């Protein structure tokens, strides 16, 4: 499929390490130089009238050294038209080149131009045809299956001659006969554990923003968000850059890592209305009803006013504990300061690992109570804990020998 802006940003990030903002900036330069079409598009299709220009655009790439040979091969062949659909073209059609040939582009601009030009060639090329073979092996009572493939007609894959992510030499299976006995050369049992989801890259974050509405329960809101998600193709890069500018996250190689500041903000707003992704669905649904005449714009405007007052009041009533305001030294490592956050207080040295959770048996510990625990190793009696059975009880807290927070119940005296 042809590129829309988000897909271009995702692939430029995963293949070349470009940020979403950088890709948008380069695509805008190429557009202003009249080398490619309008970049801020959310469509991966072109209309039938634009399709009439495609043969000439392909022919023009015979003048571009990287694609000259392939463009010459397909210029007189039937073109694939799966990207042609007037109904799926939004305000702007998919990204394609113009007939103007670039000269001496800077390396990064050349990279993005070739991505757009190459994808255009791929989109209108013939299909890639493979012979796929599956072999089932029986060892004892266990079945093993291996699949391999051989490309019979390269089709669109000939443009860049790139391998698929899961393609390797193992795809070329050896010749075997049905019923043949094969020797077992080696075997081993591997013990593995499930892994947590990896950190987002800009590519995966863009995908998550694009499909944010999938988790919305209300069917109408989910349908309204189907084509929107969080932000638009034109604004998602700016949203990500804002998170960097406010130091809510940082780049570590290709990964996006939330900062402590970002985590603190998340803890504060995650349950608030301002962070409810379904809000976008509600607004999109309302705008669709206005467009169809089922709702008056003034009514929508009033709901926005009410919503603004609600989220403002909710945020202003939120109490925030600021990190580092209590000047406590970690009792475990006896060196690093303790940082206070909305849900925890912890040592600023990650290698130390001391952490005190504010919530203990349905009781929220105050800054003073945590400070007493850190400085004296124990607290005064704290009222209002709840047992698993739901009964209230009072008790002091203390650190045990491993610096875990435990109750400091008095020892029971034995009766004589």
From TrEMBL:
- Which spans of this chain does the record mark as coiled coil? none
**Quick one: a GO cellular component term?**
cytoplasmic replication fork
Keywords from the UniProt entry:
DNA-binding, Isomerase, Topoisomerase
User: Topo IA-type catalytic domain spans which residues?
Assistant: 1-312
Signal peptide range equals none
Which Gene Ontology BP annotations are present? DNA recombination; DNA repair; DNA topological change
GO MF term set: DNA binding; DNA topoisomerase type I (single strand cut, ATP-independent) activity; DNA topoisomerase type II (double strand cut, ATP-hydrolyzing) activity
Question: What's the superkingdom here?
Answer: Bacteria
Q: Map out region (Disordered) in residue numbers.
A: 207-229
Q: What class of enzyme is it?
A: isomerase
Q: What is its EC number?
A: 5.6.2.2
One Pfam entry for this protein is Toprim_Crpt
Say yes or no: keyword Aminoacyl-tRNA synthetase present: no
Instruction: Tell me what this protein is called.
Output: DNA topoisomerase 3
Q: Which organism is it from?
A: Candidatus Ordinivivax streblomastigis
Its organism's taxonomic lineage begins at: Bacteria, Pseudomonadati, Bacteroidota, Bacteroidia, Bacteroidales
